[in-house]
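Structure (tokenized):
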């Protein structure tokens, strides 16, 4: 077996685990932020492995379409009228799935969309590869808040025949992100006593008129206006970061950022301002710009502070 074969088997195994784990969450109707749910396999990949896996999937899509074109040249046939705008899909449907594509769930996972067709053909392989690509893009978005434009542009240039597919998946992510931007509630897993502690600490930073709405937000109810935090935004945001890594909050960083930015503003030196989405993201996901020990609020025994380094060691 060649080094190339070993390398391919490695990525096919990663793809197999990726599809098993991510498909299971979709079929069970849960997400990685659902209480008690294990993290999907894709979350264990390093940044290098994640981007390399994206490239590997696109290369396999190209491989499938080269096989399809070769088969079409050997056995030319007229494309039916109903497939006039989906020629490549029709051609994939004409080529049976070989044993080569039955060894890994990356190529052979069961369909989860009732509208898909051609499971036993190369169209089935293509459908599964495209779904794998969507999971990888979702993970990139989850980790960074958005997908690096330079990386996406590089993909579109190196795999230009799939630029439309990449743009479609990118648009889907943006649409989901926009929906998340309307995040109206979060779920805190706190005892009544701990919720009372949290409220007692936070409400001194809000006007008396905003305090009932603050309690409503913490109980998971939406409010129709932004509450003004009297202090630097990083002090407020860091409290919710601590609630998250201590296990009292199970929202993704993206959802939590969107919820905070939707419901809070802050009073700084120049007056009242909206929370900065970029700053909130950096504090939540990287601990960048979080307050020093003296400025930290809500320092309860049950809400311990952990450094970014210690969190990485225990991840």
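Design, position by position:
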């Amino acid at each position: 077996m060649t080094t190339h074969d070993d390398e391919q088997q490695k990525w096919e195994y990663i793809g197999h685990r990726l599809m098993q784990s991510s498909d299971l969450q979709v079929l069970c109707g849960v997400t990685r932020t659902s209480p008690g749910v294990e993290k999907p396999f894709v979350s264990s990949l390093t940044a290098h492995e994640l981007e390399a896996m994206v490239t590997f999937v696109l290369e396999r899509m190209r491989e499938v379409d080269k096989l399809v074109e070769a088969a079409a040249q050997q056995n030319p046939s007229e494309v039916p009228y109903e497939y006039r705008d989906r020629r490549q899909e029709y051609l994939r449907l004409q080529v049976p799935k070989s044993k080569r594509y039955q060894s890994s769930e990356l190529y052979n996972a069961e369909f989860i969309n009732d509208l898909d067709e051609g499971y036993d053909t190369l169209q089935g392989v293509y459908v599964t590869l495209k779904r794998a690509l969507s999971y990888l893009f979702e993970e990139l978005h989850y980790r960074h808040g958005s997908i690096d434009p330079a990386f996406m542009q590089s993909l579109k240039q190196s795999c230009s025949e799939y630029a439309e597919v990449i743009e479609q998946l990118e648009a889907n992510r943006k649409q989901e992100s926009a929906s998340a931007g309307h995040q109206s509630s979060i779920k805190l897993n706190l005892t009544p006593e701990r919720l009372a502690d949290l409220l007692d600490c936070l409400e001194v930073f809000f006007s008396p008129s905003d305090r009932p709405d603050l309690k409503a937000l913490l109980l998971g109810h939406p409010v129709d206006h932004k509450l003004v935090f009297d202090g630097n935004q990083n002090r407020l945001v860091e409290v919710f970061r601590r609630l998250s890594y201590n296990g009292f909050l199970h929202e993704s960083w993206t959802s939590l950022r969107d919820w905070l930015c939707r419901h809070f503003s802050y009073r700084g030196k120049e007056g009242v301002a909206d929370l900065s989405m970029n700053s909130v993201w950096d504090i939540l996901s990287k601990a960048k710009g979080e307050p020093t020990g003296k400025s930290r609020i809500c320092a309860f025994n049950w809400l311990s502070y952990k450094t970014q380094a210690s969190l990485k060691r225990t991840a």
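Reviewer-requested clarification: The two ends are 35 Å apart (CA to CA). The CA atoms of residues 111 and 119 lie 7 Å apart.
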